[in-house]
Amino acid sequence: MTERPVLGIDIGGSGIKGAPVDLTVGEFATKRLRIETPQHSTPKNVAAVVKEIVDHFADQIGDGPIGITIPAVVTHGQTRSAANIDKSWIDAPAEQIFEDQLGRGIVLVNDADAAGVAEVQYGAAKGHPGLVLMTTLGTGIGSALIYRGVLIPNSELGHIEVDGHDAESRAAASIKDKTGMSYQDYAKRLQRYYEVVEALFWPDLIVVGGGVSKDSDEFLPHLDLKTKIVPAELRNKAGIIGAAWLAHDAEEHPDPIPRAT
Known about the structure:
Blueprint: E1 6-11, E2 15-22, E3 27-28, E4 33-36, H1 43-56, H2 58-61, E5 66-70, E6 74-75, E7 78-79, H3 94-102, E8 106-110, H4 111-122, E9 131-137, E10 141-147, E11 150-152, E12 161-162, E13 165-166, H5 168-171, H6 173-179, H7 183-201, E14 205-209, E15 228-231, H8 238-252
Parallel strand pairs: 1-5, 5-8, 9-14, 14-15
Antiparallel strand pairs: 1-2, 2-3, 2-4, 6-7, 9-10, 10-11, 12-13
Helix pairs in contact: 1-3, 4-8
């Protein structure tokens, strides 16, 4: 593993956060920096904020790789969707935009995918030999599938149809908050969501992340699944840590599939 820390940056709807990561142990090498996401969160404006974070940590990371997460589907350097960021990200050559702004190579990845990788490498699913499903319960439902340590990107399981509804429109943590549901009632919605996902993918382990996971004792015991389900361990650090790990991994094992043009 690299001796120099690798910078991970996590782009969210309200804040853009970054920190150098010590990949030997999967921890921040220094205190993270957070800057508010621009109100007009276009690729150009977000890239300018990302550059501020990169410049802040430049002495620590040298010319090494940078990993960046974004709340979007990412295929071969292009963002194909946009959740809680400006719609101009849809089909944008996002990886190239960041590289032009930063003057260095970067790896861009879906935010839930990065969190899932972090949990498999360092957290609740560390060393798991089978199929791990990570779900992040927040404004929507993000997901990541990792099989024997290898990411299967852009699963988007928050958007499967469950009983005629887009899953996250019923089971995202934001819905619980908006409606004032008790955790016991929320667990009923999660039960239905997870049993449908379980029947489709038959994972060996489910890891539940997102801010609501800190209260996992309030709802996980109410779930009755065939699959073991556990709370995430890395919480809001997971995106940054996973992005850094993926950036280093991409440098060690370059993607043979070219970017879309």
